[in-house]
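It is worth pausing here to work through a concrete case rather than discussing structure prediction in the abstract. The textbook approach is simple: state the sequence, then state the predicted structure, then interpret. We follow exactly that order.
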Amino acid sequence: MVPIKTGSCASGAVSFTVKAELKAPDACHCIQCRKHSGHYFVSTDVQRSAIEIAGQDKLTWHQASAKVRRGFCSICGASLFFDPLAADWIGVAMSAFDTPTLTHLEKHIFGAEKGDYYPISDGLQPNPR
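Step two, the predicted structure:
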């Protein structure tokens, strides 16, 4: 039986269903993720074939670079997706899941760019990139 996880933005205008086991998430501390999310961005990588997104007319994409776009709700502004265009997966914000994810943070990335106002003190060694 394939596990089903659901999620949405704060307003409910954009929602999604994931039909797959969730991979362990990572916490990205890069400057772009911090500005996009308001802190650091914790996400799990989901195969494109395993996710269905509803409310796409309310989903706005910001082309962050030539290779990546970031998705957010145009109604409430919730940061939802990290989309590397050439990959077969999409990053889904852990904060957007409505149901328990049954995962645990696996790693921190871009630790060299983290904000100076918080420590990384969970025992996981941050990768500089």
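Step three, interpretation. The helical segments are 31-37. The chain has a mean pLDDT of 96.
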